[in-house]
Amino acid sequence: MSTMEIAVLGAGAMGSMFGGRLAEAGHSVTLIDINQPHLEAIRANGLCVETDGNTRAIKNIAAMRPGATDKTPELLLVFTKSMHTRAALSGIEHLLGETTAVLTLQNGLGNVEAIRDFVPLANVLIGVTTWPADLVGPGSVSSHGEGNIRMMSADGERTSKVSAVAEALNSAGLNCQVDDNVWAAIWEKVAFNAALNSICAVTGTTVDQLGLLDDSKSLALTVAAEVVSVANASGVSADLNTCSTNIVHAIEQHRGHKPSMLQDVLAGRKTEIEGINGAVVDVARTLNVSVPHTETLAKLVRLIDARNASAVAK
After folding, report:
1. Which of 113, 176, 227, 246 could form a disulfide with 149 if both were Cys (CB 3.0 to 4.6 A apart)?
2. Does residue 255 come out as left (phi exceeding 0), alpha (psi in the -120 to 50 range) or beta?
3. What are the tens digits of pLDDT across the range 217-239?
4. CA 257 – CA 269 distance, rounded (Å)
């Protein structure tokens, strides 16, 4: 196996877990973030990774702020929140080489457009992942169960760059599949998040609590149907049955789970509503597709964001 020079932009739960797994597999990995306690803990003790009861400290991993490294990576993994993508990339623009591949596995829509401001489209890879991860504390991340990655170049070309990145991810056991139909997977995840994240954020409920009423489960499925209708109208073959099955499974199985949007609301942080429901509404308008439930939830979460911002400003 050939090893890669890899940088991870955004060393939260997902970025740290992916970076740790890739470093374990022998790749040269640099985590880039502004969370100083997290960076210092990794530098002092390594990155603590716990997967299904197996805990280890990964020492062969660098952790630094954006301006503290000058290594040009072969692969840059972007794990910031979608609304921070441009600002985060501008902070490490000096690292991006002519051939650096940039892979986004972020939630929502609009990530490719943001990355294209910094690198050619031929260097942009887009994908979706089902791997779970939680940041336990500074320098410590956990992940349980199995996940996968579906990934492709943003321009649809199966290049050697795509193959090399897939090989690197698979060397770390991350189950990466090169998928020509990746946009369908991305829209299906947007539909899932637009339904569950926004409803839980507005109501303060965990995912399984949406099963307390048939109305709330029905609302989630209706939002998913709206999002899929927008995807289909834009020429993407997202599948409503897949989305509906995933949503029902989550409501029945994800007991006590607080989606990231609800976690942001509870912590007083700005949510990713614009990259999910808001982005769907924007595309729907250009295609003249009606998405009333998705739009109403976007407006309600924006109000919560405004309330939290107002509280911080006082």
Report:
1. 176
2. beta
3. 999 999 999 999 999 999 999 99
4. 18
DSSP assignment of 217-256 equals HHHHHHHHHHHHHHHHHTT----HHHHHHHHHHHHHH-TT
Sign of the alpha-carbon torsion through 6, 190, 239, 214: positive
Sign of the torsion angle spanned by Cα atoms 127, 133, 136, 139? negative
pTM of the model: 0.91
Give me the domains of the chain, ranges plus CATH numbers. Answer: 5-180 (3.40.50.720), 183-313 (1.10.1040.10)
* 240 Cβ contact list (under 8 Å, min separation 6): 224, 225, 228
Closest residue by Cα to residue 169 from 219, 135, 207, 131: 131
Tokens of 63: 């952790």
Confidence at 205, pLDDT banded by 50, 70, 90: very high
